[in-house]
């Protein structure tokens, strides 16, 4: 039976006088509080926080946790998010005291091991990208996009070129146009073809000397490799623009092809996807960026420097740097996990990640293609996008209904309604860390779901603690805190 | 490789089902001329035993401030982390899940975020909080952008020079590409100058950003700043140290419109700068301009209370270039840590922690300045940090030598404030004992010998 003990809100569980943490007595001579802190600055009453005993806190959060699906407990084919297994060794190693206990302003001489790790990680990410320089500072993929676009802006400013536009395919993730806008660019949308590739005629039409950057996701958000990436990059470069590669889908091409080798000038990684950083219920991630040598001087600082004797230091990034985008060094804990993950795999292992991710996705596609429409065809890279449009037209069943019903079978739902160019999209990314048996069970479940009564689907899920929250009400009269 | 399942037999069966002969055939779409024709040049694979050995070797080449005597601050602190925080945050159901797109499969996370938002509202005295941003610095920047978006005709941003220099640098980086003017008001005597601030705020000003306690640990006259800011019709953004709110007036109670904070103090390890927690709370009027995920309460099909991501039309996945921010992945697990921390501390724990910080930092300041090589740089009320001037002006060698003795004595200020290159910032948390502080003071007082030896 599902245990609901202590799962009311913390504020409902609170009783005056209860407490968990207790601080030690003050062991220094105490000064008068009034003298240290004038009345004007002091709070008039205690903070209105809940009062709880420690066992209650543990039971509360433990029982709540069981209401989540997670990679540790469920198959989680959430497309574009690369929900692969999160290795436990990485958790242990990232919490070594000599790693987790470092203060960001310790003298460089006392963090030589950490700086070496980060320096080596920069080199590894540069090699995997086929690009020269790396900044580990951005805190997530979107932050990496923004940082790289600021780098591009600084580059063109120095060249004295008035480039005001960023081109973004209509299939792109929402962060791409949002980042471009935050970097001060006008966003121009480039169409996709019916099969999900960049519409080259439309691209060429929109390319001019005011275009700073073309942002492309390759493999695309449809899980397809853009075959014509060479000519596309040439066309953009010919007009003096730069290619930004959204690296969210790097899992499909590790060791097989490199963005720098297919024309990218800059890119971000999502180490929380490709390099197994746990997604943490929404984060943290990290968003390291890699760029060409020409763009390196503009990267945010500080930079890690290694002298001839092998000593590491943090150095100023120089006058051409865009400056900081985040305080301190970056999301180091996530980067440490990525480093451990790359070292665990080595060159062959990295390539095998891509091979198994692509194999698993194609296998699932092969087992479903007779029952779902996959507009872009019979093959995919690490993920594919099915469309429930026909189902919707014929039976009134939406992608969301299918997604909700899958939860009843113990599977997390695929990503739905993204990319926007596929109606009723169901984006399925199995990742490499799933077995054929799991994939077979998922396929069987999905096939069964597609055969079920409309009402069963419309009212799904049937087995979860809640079903179909009223989102309209939530947005109309927002209740965003307890009172 | 340790995490794959596919045996040669599985692979064969899967390839047959797909209808291709070899795995390589699945990569046919990638033109041959851009395929990598060699193995990646990364180090060879390590077994778990070897990896652990390697990581321990790297780790041994660091000296952990957490295991030494740590008086470092400036936005990252060696506060106590109760065991319950680590215990809860290490549950796979939390740390291996993702953004709660499917509410029914994520009620645990959603309720935690709702509780986190409520706790942050209670802590700051403001109506609404989001479910996290990247860090204190980018949160401060997002607050500025939110204030600009709320009054689009006003393009001036006024920032106190006593705000964390890295936060100011981030704001500068972001604003250079946007149509907005950044004005920094100097803070020469350890706090923002009231007159200069008053002069800088005008009818073009969208917002004023101050930090309380400021980067130097000192208290600003926030009541007066709030008055000046509001008189000009601008929004007041305050960056706070959440621990200080165990004692100090909540920003919502003195008129802050937006509060941001680095949430690292709330149960998050220092880990060389991240992942941390960007806290943001604001008045309700800003809610539709807020960046990031917001969790809301609602009811489900059968009328039961449940939680969902709400007001998503602000966000990039729906609004694209018109979104209030580009943030997608946030710092959810760090918000969970903060929620567990605040639940464990409660009002009394927060009060005790804040009071210990205050008393101990006062004791430390008194103790160190017994030696006349050192003096407090500013005559200001402080909370847990303060600025010390080394009358001999040898801050770097002083701090380096202390570090060699396992005492991280403070953060040199010269890199951000050239005029303070004979000064360093000291933070004293509740974890420091009287004996720790005495040892720190003695280490600094006795360092002369060492320093001259180094220079000899
Ligand atoms: C294709 C794509 N681009 C960019 C992003 C943004 O990355 P992050 O969520 O790490 O900011 C995502 C992730 O959600 C993505 O799937």
Description:
Chain A is of the alpha/beta class and about 475 residues long. Chain A folds into three domains: about 1-65, no CATH class; about 90-345, Aspartate Aminotransferase, domain 2, CATH 3.40.640; about 350-475, Alpha-Beta Complex (Aspartate Aminotransferase, domain 1). Chain A contains 16 helices and twelve strands. Chain A has helices at about 10-15, 35, 55-65, 90-95, 95-100, 110-130, 140-160, 175-180, 200-205, 230-240, 330-370, 390-395, 400-410, 435-450, 455-460, 470-475, and strands spanning about 135, 165-170, 185-190, 210-215, 240-245, 265-270, 290, 305, 310-315, 385, 415, 425-430. In chain A, the strands form three sheets. In chain A, strands 1-7-6-5-4-2-3 form a seven-stranded mixed sheet, sandwiched between helices. In chain A, strand 8 (about 305) and strand 9 (about 310-315) form a beta hairpin. Chain A is globular. Chain A starts with 9 loop residues before the first helix and ends in a 7-residue tail after the last helix. With about 450 residues, chain B is an alpha/beta fold. Chain B folds into two domains: about 65-75 and about 345-455, Aspartate Aminotransferase, domain 1; about 85-340, Type I PLP-dependent aspartate aminotransferase-like (Major domain) (Aspartate Aminotransferase, domain 2), CATH 3.40.640.10. Chain B has 14 helices and 15 strands. Chain B has helices at about 10-20, 50-60, 85-90, 90-95, 105-125, 135-150, 165-175, 195-200, 220-230, 315-320, 330-370, 395-405, 435-445, 445-455, and strands at about 70, 130, 155-160, 180-185, 205-210, 235-240, 260, 280, 295-300, 305-310, 375, 385-390, 405-410, 410, 425. In chain B, helix 12 (about 395-405) crosses helix 14 (about 445-455). The longest helix of chain B has about 35 residues, at about 330-370. Chain B is globular and about 80 Å long. Chain B starts with 7 loop residues before the first helix and ends with a helix. The relative contact order of chain B is 0.14. Chains A and B meet through helix 3, helix 4, helix 5, helix 6 and helix 7 of A and helix 1, helix 2, helix 3, helix 4 and helix 5 of B. The complex binds pyridoxal-5'-phosphate (PLP). Pyridoxal-5'-phosphate (PLP) binds near residues 142 and 221 of chain A.
